[in-house]
Automatic annotation (TrEMBL):
Protein name, entry field: Sarcosine oxidase subunit beta
Domain of life of the organism encoding this protein: Bacteria
Family the entry assigns: Belongs to the SoxB family.
Cell location: Cytoplasm
Length: 415
């Protein structure tokens, strides 16, 4: 595969861009693979990438029922942070955040990582206590975060109204190297690198059954035929329960639609990412000028991958006192994705009752930021059959044994 570079752009400009190769191949599936990864979202593609890069395993197929990145990976609001409370969470999210720092160079693909700074607003005294506690925990974990006064918040965010009558700004939990990246580019960059290593990315191919014998997976049925494998990695986010059902086990995961929206593009007015967890809304400005606004989950479990009117009203009502300019904006688009929620709001990277089948799910409303760290940890689990340090506490049996990794104080919501 030809490297992308300034010279490649110049060369192609001279020949009217006629020489670009396809970024990844679209082969028909082979009869068997060493590893099948179900799901070409960021987590599935990153798992495949690190299987190749860290363990030299390249006889891999990534099987996707739609188009790659078309699930939550291409639908999220792209917030990246690692300011979590629990040690196991901050370790995997900080690993991911640090991999984002060099991802464009590693993948030779511009993922537009923008560590513009992230604020989690404290708008109740409960949040002040919770976030200060998390700042202290982050210091012990080696994650650089700090507590900001309301005046420091105003300096960073001139458009903010500090003095809302019901929820004034009492301070903020700030991570200077938090930010955003371009979500599609993350999926596309991993896909290109996987394809370059000889892996097969098979789109428009749904897994419809998982076959097993003697407690081991032997292969899968797909809409493009039967494929056998030595190991199976299930990385399907909101459809984890469905695929686990095919494999004959249950997961402590619920599937719920989470919604977001963007405004019309406006002049630059916000150069940090802001989360307001008490009123529940979060906001950043895209490079195109749109305000990217995230809301909450639907109030009931569902597989409905779209937005709904009442969420627009609820989310904007929540944010408008703090950001009065929102009241004058037109909305451009609204959408939803199906997120996979666990009881403690922490993910699952785990062995399963089937010996050679592994599952990665439960990233819920906050897994975009985790993609590289999750792929790194999942690849280790699949390659070695045992979790490494990063994944060691995220097994699915913690729900049976009461070993919860409770992140409620750190995030309120977990974007
Ligand atoms: C509106 C919204 C906002 C969000 N905001 C943020 C945020 O700001 N920051 C953040 O960190 N996270 C955020 N998230 C969460 C984040 O998007 C997800 O946690 C993350 O993208 C999950 O990635 P994934 O690869 O596990 O899943 P996905 O990208 O959903 O990929 C799973 C893939 O599996 C495929 N699949 C399912 N079943 C099958 C089958 N039977 N056969 C083959 N393929 C199958 C699906 O088609 C899908 O492409 C948000 C999510 C949403 C919906």
């Amino acid at each position: 595969m030809r490297r992308y570079s300034v010279f490649a752009i110049a060369r192609e400009a001279l020949r009217f861009h006629s020489g670009w190769e396809k970024a990844w191949k679209s082969p028909e599936p082979k009869k068997n693979y060493d590893v099948i990864v179900i799901g070409a979202g960021g987590h599935g593609l990153a798992t495949a990438y690190y299987l190749g890069k860290n363990f030299g395993i390249t006889n891999v197929a990534v099987i996707e029922k739609g188009w790659l990145g078309g699930g939550n990976t291409g639908r999220n609001t792209t917030i990246i942070r690692s300011n979590y409370l629990q040690n196991s969470s901050s370790a995997i999210f900080e690993k991911a955040r640090s991999l984002y720092e060099t991802m464009s160079q590693d993948l030779n693909y511009n993922v537009m990582f923008s560590p513009r700074g992230l604020l989690m607003l404290a708008q109740t005294h409960h949040e002040v206590r919770g976030y200060k506690r998390t700042v202290h925990a982050n210091q012990l974990q080696g994650v650089a975060t700090q507590w900001l006064s309301p005046e420091q918040v105003k300096e960073l965010v001139p458009i903010i109204n500090l003095h809302g009558p019901r929820y004034p700004i009492l301070g903020a939990h700030y991570q200077a190297r938090g930010g955003t990246a371009r979500h599609d580019a993350v999926a596309w960059g991993y896909a290109r690198a996987c394809s370059d290593m000889g892996m097969d990315i098979i789109q428009n191919c749904e897994v419809t059954a998982v076959h097993q014998a003697h407690g081991q997976v032997t292969g899968v049925s797909t809409t493009k035929g039967e494929i056998s494998c030595k190991k199976l990695a299930v990385v399907v986010a909101g459809h984890s329960g469905v695929v686990a059902g095919m494999a004959g086990f249950r997961l402590p995961v619920e599937s719920i639609a989470l919604q977001a929206m963007v405004s019309e593009p406006i002049k630059p007015c916000l150069d940090v990412v802001i989360m307001a967890n008490t009123v529940h809304g979060y906001i950043s400005q895209s490079d195109k000028g749109e305000l990217v606004i995230g809301g909450g989950t639907d109030g009931f479990n569902n597989y409905t991958q779209r937005g709904s009117f009442h969420h627009v009203e609820e989310t904007l009502r929540a944010l408008v006192t703090t950001f009065p300019l929102i009241s004058r904006l037109k909305l451009l688009r609204q959408w939803g994705g199906i997120v996979d929620m666990t009881g403690d709001r922490s993910p699952i990277i785990s062995k399963t009752p089937l010996g050679n089948c592994f599952i990665n799910c439960g990233w819920g409303t906050g897994g975009f930021k985790a993609i590289p760290g999750s792929g790194w940890a999942m690849a280790e689990l699949v390659a070695k059959g045992e979790p490494g340090v990063l994944a060691s506490e995220f097994d699915m049996w913690r729900f049976k044994e009461g070993r919860f990794i409770d992140e409620s104080v750190a995030a309120g919501v977990a974007h």
